[in-house]
Amino acid sequence: MADWRQALHLEPPRGWLNDPNGFSFFHGLYHLFFQYSPDSADGSTPKGWGHWQSPDLLHWTFTGESLLPNTPWERNGAYSGCAVPCGEVLRLYYTGNVKHPGPYDYIHAGRESNTLLAETSDGVHVGPKQRLMTSADYPADCTLHVRDPKVWREEDRWYMLLGARSLQDAGRVLLYRSADGLAWELARVLEPAPAFGYMWECPDHFILDGRRWLSVSPQGLPHGETENQNQYQSGWFALNGDLETGTLSGFTEWDKGFDFYAPQTLQAPDGRILLVGWMGMPDADYRNPTAALGWQHCLTLPREIEAGPDGLRQRPLRELDALADGQPLALTAGQTLALPLPFRLRMTADRDFALTLAGGLHLERDTEAGRLTLRFDGEALGGGRTLRRAVCGEGPLTVDLVADRSALEIYCNDGATVFSTRFYPADSTIPVAVQGADATVQPLRPMTFAIEE
To answer: Do 47 and 37 form a contact (C-beta atoms < 8 A)?
Structure first.
């Protein structure tokens, strides 16, 4: 029998999950909040913030819904935001969503997007809320779609990013600065010319290898055969120069798979930049059969971000090594093994290869076409997911695949290309076959998940 409850990925005990929020380290614990509708697996009820915490990224405790949409400033949902340690409290900055009843488009009229602040001493109990900015405080040439604050401190100054949509339907990021994290002034608007999508959600900023990087989730990009294949995208720009005057260059998608959106980063205590995303996609034309069982969606594993010669690369969390269960198994070309989930598979291919999981999920390399393809056979295994492609060069290509009970993260070419997807095998032990290369499989123990609501 299939068991689609994850062994490695964070998911809600019931109801709906979407964007990761408030990814932070505070008082010796990692805190990972998320958009949460506990009473509806389809996300139809107002969203608050669910909360997971962990001392080591391997042992997790779910404490329930920490942030509730319980003021007039957020009556239609406590939307996405971040968490910033500040002395003895963790500051939660987020968007309060209000939709007034009436014949509104909720883009130009009928909506309030309030930037709100709450504080918690433990990630579980949240104190009184403050409204820091309203829709009237944002630039006059913005629509009412302004949301998802990302806040951080540099020396004696605070900064905030907000994702926005202009009146000309151009995606942008608003940069604010503050002396105390309470009173904010606009520093600049980051908006490339020509327009790059009509809306930018979930902005994020981090410094790595001496450079600044901006992550955003654009909506409205044109789709291609190997780029922007999902309904919406998430990716990064290099921010060249000073924060308040520098320019953006390039755009690279974080993930080429079916299920990745709204990522958020954290600088861990050891200096690593960790990234986690929603393993889902808004307005997708495929489905998740766990919704019929009372829950839907999960988060990606935290990923380590590194700066390479051609941009950023992603690697599976190194803490996964501690979950190794026994000795690695050899999977030779032309062989099929029955493997219990979860496991990790690694391989290097000098030429074309085909890796098949659960009889109907294929990762294939076509060296002549310079292309990697992830494809599903039929409807059941992928819930309607079909085909995703990515460009790959010549020469050796590495694959590092982490397989959970209903989630796959596939890191190719040393993390330069990643595919993330949900899948729904009929059994918790699946056949795995490879053609054109040998592979090594490491069985994994589950992470520890506890629930203390």
So the answer is: yes
Of 42, 413, 383, 148, nearest to 256 (Cα)? 413
Residue with tokens 């954290």: 266
9 in Cβ contact with 288 (< 8 Å) = no
Residues 286-339 have pLDDT tens digits of 999 999 999 999 999 999 999 988 899 999 999 999 999 999 999 999 999 999
Tokens of 209: 């290898």
Place of tokens 């999981």: 357
CB-based contacts of 133, cutoff 8 Å, min separation 6: 114, 115, 184
Give the span between the Cα atoms of 431 and 264, in whole angstroms.
34
DSSP per residue, 217-253: EEESPPP-SSSS-SSS--EEEEEES-TTT-EEEEEEE
Q: 433: closest CA among 287, 307, 333, 322?
A: 333
The β-bridge partners of 207 are: 212
End-to-end CA separation in angstroms for the chain: 29
> What residue type is assigned to position 333 of the chain?
A
- Residues designated as active site: 19
Output the furthest CA–CA distance in the chain (Å, rounded).
64
102-136 residue pLDDT tens: 999 999 999 999 999 999 999 999 999 999 999 99
Q: In what order do the strands lie in the sheet with 126-133?
A: 78-86, 89-99, 111-120, 126-133
Task: Decide: helix, strand or coil at residue 62.
Answer: strand
**C-alpha closest to that of 48 among 74, 77, 6, 13:** 77
- Calculate the alpha carbon distances from 246 to 190, 212, 301, 345, 382 in Å: 9, 9, 31, 41, 42
Note whether 78 and 96 are within 8 A (CB).
yes
How far apart are the C-alpha atoms of 296 and 14, rounded to whole Å? 8
Distance CA 113, CA 108 (A): 12
User: Using CA atoms, how far apart are residues 304 and 297, in angstroms rounded to an integer?
Assistant: 22
Backbone angles phi, psi at 74, to 5 degrees: -145, 30
